[in-house]
Write a structure and sequence with these properties.
83% of the residues lie in helices and 0% in strands. It has 65 residues and is mostly helical. It is elongated.
């Protein structure tokens, strides 16, 4: 096996991996999971709500002084 054949096999392997990743990412089975992850940034968790409320409480206490 010479260097040119090895380079060709590596290029073929990389192209096959690329095609596999594209097919996997656009499959209908993964759509729901990807949509959930994509929209998770817009969901507020309880900790964030508590932090916002505590900051609002501190601000209102400071305004009263």
């Amino acid at each position: 096996m010479d260097y040119g054949t090895l380079r060709g096999l590596v290029a073929l392997l990389i192209m096959a991996l690329f095609v596999i990743i594209v097919v996997w990412s656009y499959s209908k089975k993964r759509k729901a999971s990807f949509d959930k992850v994509a929209n998770s940034i817009f969901e507020e968790d309880d900790l964030t709500k508590q932090n916002k409320q505590s900051h609002l409480d501190k601000d209102s206490k400071q305004e009263r002084k």
